[in-house]
Amino acid sequence: MKTVITLTSYLLLAAASAWASEEGHHEAHASLLTSWLTFGAYVALLYWLISKKVGAGWQGRRNSIEFAVLKGKDAVEEAKTRLTTVQAALRDADREVEKIGEQYRIETAREIAELKESVVEKIERSKRRAADAAQAEERSAHANIKRELAELAVRRASEQLATGNTAQKDAALRDATLKNLRELVH
Predict the structure, then answer these.
(1) pLDDT over threshold 50, residue 8
(2) How much is the pLDDT for 32?
(3) CB within 8 A of 1, min separation 6: which ones?
(4) Pairing with 32, which of 26, 49, 150, 175 sits 20 to 30 Å away (CA)?
């Protein structure tokens, strides 16, 4: 600030001496010099007043910007810290998901094996029951065939006794009965 005032003073003095050196213009130059000196003093005073207020305003602005920058740096550091924490938590969560997935695969495989075993057991039981039912049906069919054959033989014998057949008729009836018996068996 002092350099501005000093420079302004030197310029005003140089201008005044240049005008004063001219011949015949001393009086006009003296009033002109006074006007310039007054103007210079006014500019210097105005500069001094404005620079105090403007300088204080610029300093306040600078301080608020520096504060905002420091606050921003703190926020960046905090965000970096949070980011690191969140990334670590995500890695832990990924590991946990992998663990759960592996446990799920193991448990699913075990359940599938148990279900398979259960289905195989049910199939084997069904096969045994079907075989038992088939054997029972076969025994029942044999018993029915035997009963029908016995009834047929008794009926033929009754017919033969009732009609008094001869040996030839007896042989023919026997052959017919055996033929009927073969058809029933097959």
Answers:
(1) yes
(2) 73
(3) 47, 48, 51
(4) 49
